[in-house]
Amino acid sequence: MEPITISLSGRIDSNNAAAVEQDITEKLASAENAAVVLDAENLEYISSAGLRVILRLKKSHPDLRISNVRTEVYDILDMTGFTEMMPVEKAYRVVSVEGCEEIGRGANGTIYRIDQDNVVKVYNNADALADIQHEREVAKLALILGIPTAISYDVVRVGESYGSVFELLNARSFSHILASQPEKLDWCVREYVEMLRKIHGTLVPAGKLPDVKETALDWARFLKDYLPKEAGDKLVSLVEAVPHDDHMIHGDYHTKNLELQNDEVLLIDMDTLAVGNPIFELASMFNALQGYSEYDHEVILKFQGFDFETGKTFWRKSLAAYLETNCEAKLQEVENKARVLGYTRMIRRSIRRGGLETPEGKKEIEFWKERLLSLLEKTDTLVFSRNELEIEAATERLPDVQSFIGERLEKVDCPFKAQMQIGVAVEEIFVNIAHYAYAPDKGCATVRVEVNEAPVSVSITFIDHGVPYDPLKKDDPDVALPADAREIGGLGIFMTKKLMDDVAYEYRDGQNILTLRKNL
Amino acid sequence: MRWEKRCLDMNCPKIDFHIHTVISDGTDTLPVLLDKVREAGIEIFSVTDHDAVKAASALPQLRQQGDPVFLPGVEFSCRDEAGKYHILGYGYDPESESIRSAVDYGHSLRMKKVTARLDYLREHFGFDFPPGELSQILSLDNPGKPHIANLMVKLGYSKTKEEAIAEYINKVRIGGPSYLRPEQAIDAILGAGGIPVLAHPFYGDGDQLILGDEMKARLETLSGFGLRGVEAFYSGFTVRLIRQMLSFAEHFGFYVTAGSDYHGKNKMIALGDTGLDQTLDYPEGLLRFLRDTADRTR
């Protein structure tokens, strides 16, 4: 049955409540079971006598709904608990963004400043009310979990779509700061990364936010059909292999979505909030700060307001701060993983926007595809760890390995002497892997640094996929013999054993795993 | 049969402690009301006519064996500098001088208002009221605006009752005290051994909206005057309002009552519709009210 709509107008108070009720009763006399909608567009005021009429109506017509409610009336219905008892839909204020400054842009909408104190986020799709509701809920959740963000206080009509209004006093986006005050770049990096760490350090109760991995899997599966079979399969399995993570991900973490309000840094545009592995976040950061503009450097200027070089520098410095490393090899490793996902997303986006139908679009897609394919060849996992370095097993990469380990040892205040000893042992083991593990081919090694509690010690683990080789099996050389009488080799591992407190080897899942331990 | 045993047996009897009859502005006579109370399955009830205690002595004479239990009641209209109040009184001695004089005073104020209103309407708008109709109004126990309004409609001076009240009757200004003060009503009820309870607290005298701190301040003042309870369950309250009033009741140590404000045909309120859910445990304040008024029922 069609719902019956009854218009309310003017004031409803003790003077006319009975007449209004009589009127409603008459209108509903012939349709007892119909759903009823009270259209409150012209209702200016309702007193408790009027509230009682609505309450009685609700008792006789449980499907009652009130629509188009003005703010003043809505406040009364809200304070008295009517909004909990029945659907009450606000009448939406109409706001124009004509000539307003655009201060942010996300996947689902654009943020404009409407006056000195307020901004409105206008959603791209016309049916945005559900999205607005979603964003409100996740923003509240984020706030409860300790992420500073703005919560919208009103929903308005903007043209054909809807917008949510936030109070944002005196705020400037990080894009704006980077564009107008390049000397603040380092400060921006620090704040940007601090917020990022806070987000990624936030555990989200199960089921509260979507899993970003599902979205990434959609991208990968979409792209599979456009890539050579082997590469497509590898891409999907790489995403599938990323373990589930219940920590928060912003999903669109770029410099327009970070606002400096007075002295406080606020995160906005929360509709993409999710949980998942941080690599997915890094991928979207890479895209926003660099990836999207790699083909056409002008893109970033239009979108963020600063140039390609600034974006690239900001991305690299942020990544280094986030990973707490200046080791170029480590940065490259993680950036490459982020690029795999980043290019995947960009190619899919271009294809979906008809990129394959224009010569220019095709060129762009080819440009990214070439990069993606070359990255896929040398990528075995999308997972990264701050304490792990994946690196080509080649002697010329030894300085990278040493600097990566050195940084980590510095962080735990490792004594100088122990650092030197570890350095000698690391050189011995890494050079060994570089020479023998994959010869005559090339391959990769993983170096992991861990700090243990009891006894306080540092463990350094080397992992390679090369030929099985247990260096500990070799008998210790007889160091009492004169040099020319000794067997060649074996002295290095002997020294390593002497310098370390423990050296252990195992061969597992096709991997040589050698662990050094040094007590501190 | 006293309801105490029944109440304790079943714990959550169906109740309605706020009902009007023809003694004030309701449309049911006492016998008709009693029939309806029986029919509605209400087990304990009270008649709370405005500024009138007639039912307190008249109704018990109509009751028969096994009938619903009756608790004497009254609803005083009060006003002071801070606003308007309706104060209910329960379980008082209807013969007591204290309650009688308050009712008489209330009645005299009402008569004064009715007379003043009729005079004004005559003088300023030139309405002519036939003597027969006038004496009929003045002979009522509790004449008020609705009665004058009905007469005006009947005489063709106004199309509707609402218009009569808004356009004409409410224009009348009355000098001097025209209402009891809340402390007077509370004193009268306490003096007659009754329990004073604030009716529909959030709605003032029926059409205001008093929320939050304002509500709390009002309860503090009335508590100081000796108020003992609040009508937390009321036909016009939402679940949220009921919950809030229950928490106020707990804070102040008030009794809790439940009432519909049934007026017969004059308002579309069903008898027994108090917002109280019989399937849930009754709050402590309400159980205490039922226990403490058990020996005052008739």
Plain-language structure description:
The complex is a heterodimer of chains A (520) and B (298). With 520 residues, chain A is α+β, with helices and mostly antiparallel strands. Chain A folds into four domains: 4-90, Transcription Regulator spoIIAA (2-Layer Sandwich); 101-169, Phosphorylase Kinase, domain 1; 182-377, Aminoglycoside 3'-phosphotransferase, Chain: A, domain 2 (Alpha-Beta Complex); 388-519, 2-Layer Sandwich (Heat Shock Protein 90). Chain A has 17 helices and 20 strands. Chain A has a six-stranded mixed sheet with strand order 5-9-10-8-7-6, with helices on one face. With 298 residues, chain B is α/β, with parallel strands linked by helices. Chain B folds into two domains: 3-99 and 182-296, Alpha-Beta Barrel (TIM Barrel); 103-171, DNA polymerase, domain 1 (Orthogonal Bundle). Helix content of chain B is 43%, strand content 12%. Chain B contains eleven helices and eight strands. In chain B, strands 4-5-6-7-8 form a five-stranded mixed sheet. In chain B, strands 1-2-3 form a three-stranded parallel sheet, with no helix packed on it. At the A-B interface, α1, α2 and α4 of A face α7 and α10 of B.
